[in-house]
Amino acid sequence: MAPNLVPNFEVKFLLKSSDVLTPANDLAPELTSLLSIPANAPAIPIVVLFLDTPEKTLTAAGWCPRIRRVGGKDGLELTYKKRYPIQGEDIDAALTTANHDGFKGKKGGDKDDDDKYLAQGEWGYEKMTLSISRDKKVNDAKVKGSKHGGEVGELSLPGVDVARQVMADEAPSKFDEDGEDKKKGWGKNLLEKARVYGPILTRRWVGQWQGVKMTVEVWPIVLKDGKGVETIVEASFKADTIDEARDKRKKVTDLFNAKGWLVPRDSLKTQLVMDNY
Fold it and tell me: From which domain of life does this come (predicted)?
C-alpha cells in the first residue's frame, strides 16, 4: 500500500473575547504585549464564505469547500477540505482511513493530485481532527465583471452563482468523485445546488511567544436568532510533529490558563457559521 500522508499540526485555543479584546474588537494591550505584536499593528483582513447545499450534504460527507480573499493579496483562495475524526491522539489510524479513500503520500496519489493534498492534525482543547486540504488560487481576471456578492469591508467576494461556478471549475477529482458511489460529478452536482454560508469578515494578527509563532484571529459571527454577534477569538500555532505540538500545547495552555483567558472547549468556528448563516 502507498504510504500515508505526513501531517503537520495546528494547535488552537479559544480565548475569552471579553478579556482579550478592546470595546472596538481590537486586541487588548496585554495580549499584544504577551505575543510581541507591535502596538497598533494593523490586522490582516480576511473575508470568508463556505458553500454547501441547504441540507448540508457536503458537511455530512466530511467536506468543507471554502472561498477566501486575504487583504493585500490578489485573487481568490479556494480550499477543498475533508475532515476525519481522530480517537485521542491516534492520527495514524485516521491517516490510514484517508489513504484508503485515495489520499496517499508521495508516489501513491493520482497523477493530477500527487503532493497537492496537505494533511494536518487540528488540535483543539477537547479533540484532534485530521483535515486533508487541497488549495487553489483563482486570478481576479477569471471573475472580473461577473456578478459579485458585494463589498465586505474593503474586500469583494463573488456572488453565489459565480462562487458555485468557480468552485466547480476548480474541483479536484477526489472531491468531485466522492459520495457513496464514488461517481464523477458528485461534488460538482452538489455545488450546483449550493448556497453561501457567510460571508464573515475576520481579522488576523501574527506574533510570537518564546520563539513560537502565534496567530490570533477574530471571527464576528452573526447569530440567526437575533441575539447579536458571537465573537470568536482563536489563538493558534503550528508544529511539524505531534511531539512538538504536544509539548508546546501544554506550555501555551498553562500560559493562557494562568492569565484566566482560556475557554475550556473547542472553538468550532465553521460549525457556528454553518448553523447561523
Answer: Eukaryota
